[in-house]
Amino acid sequence: MVVPQAAFAAAPAPALHDDNGYGKFGDWYTGAVPPNVDNSKPVILFVQGLHSDYTTWYNGGDNYYDAAYNAGYRTAFVQLKDADGGGGDMWTNGAALADVIRKVSSYYGGSKINVIAHSKGGIDTQTALVYYGAYPYVNVVHQLSTPNRGSELADLSYGSWTWWIGWIMGQQDDAVYSLQTSYMNNFRGWTDGATENNYTRTYMSAGTGDDGWFSAYWYAHAVLPGSDDGAVSTYSALGLPNGVYSFTDNGSQRLSHTQMTYASKTWWQVKPKLGTTSFAALTNPMLSASANKTSLEGGSAVLPELSSNIMLGGLIDGATTNTFSLESGLKTATVDIMTASTDSNVSLISPSGKVYNASKAQAQGDTAALFAKASHNVIKIDKPEKGNWTLQAEGSQDAYFMLAQVEGGTQAKVTTTKKVHNPVKDPTVSFDVNLQGVKAKGLVKNAKLIKANQNGHNAMLGDISLKQDSTGTYKTAFATPTEPGVYNVSFDITGINEQGEEFTRSVNYNFAVTDAKGELK
Fold it and tell me: pTM for this one?
């Protein structure tokens, strides 16, 4: 397949509408009117994603603003809370975005708007339409890799291995908190059935690539289920029940989360779907299976989660060690040990005493990605030895998170019937874990129940007991916490395979607890 590669002339700088004299949040920009302007075309409002600002669409030589300008479109840009530093959740950003949508429509004479939104910007946009009255002004939304079902990376930001490093680097804020999979599961349950969705057509797209070795997205493939773009899994990006499938990647070229916003990569797939048609007369027009075979049905679907990962984490203040076990027969073990400081040193020691020193580099690529600010220490081991491995770390006032992905070994499969619990209707939280292909018994270690706090300092609530039944399945059931919020159960399973070899797998189960009304604060 031959993919168009467009070259776009640079557009004049957008004009600022400085509605916030104390910061950027709530400001908006209008693009220059192109010489070939076509007023029959819709106005395009660009909405940025997590921890980004309007320059997502403007800076650089391969941007959507230049593409739209050259094609004769009138344009506008919004600055959400993320532009001032810490990210905003969909409620904070959605309210401000709805206000800007009205202003942009008025500025352009009441024109209908097409929104092009990257990443979390798609969730902020749906919130503006459904909850803050902006739906009459928008007829088409184009999502570029929006985590409609949340992101397991956000879950990990509050897990027992990772919250130390997330807190030190300031990766925990309202935006990341709201992207946890259980929070988004609750959001979908409240939002997807709203009649306001019927007035807007939303196109969904997804990527399946990354930005290469040491990129901010490289390590995320080990965490996200199925195919992904290094930040958002395909099932999440295409998981809007009333959405319409648009495209995946760029023909034969796999795209990362960042590359989805490159005009040369995706504009040619978005442009044909820009339109001014109103959908106000339609009733649930996008819910047919033929229109969108890839989206999940219902706002509360829960997919099984698979893990072939080993996770360790904690503080570094001096010298510290930690251990994990590998079984024989593995093809590779790829280990990424993230630290907040570049001055900390880490290494792995094999069961026979061989020392593996890490290749050290700062993450490259989109700095908005979770853990992108970390110093990555990567070790790839072919046919690793069986037995106990030791992680050594040395530094001062730092933290580490080790993510090891093994190829060729056992996977831990987590299954549950729901991710959101109402303490009145659901007095018990339960889930099962199976070690795929292994029938021997093992032990669960360090199973901790943790309440995620939006700005760090997670609350460790206690131990959770998992017991193995006669089929080899690990089961747990515990009382639903009484305080509304998002929780994680993080633990390691040290299994023993049929050859009598120990191995370690790590599991993070994310769930939410609502109040009596079913609302999540």
Answer: 0.87
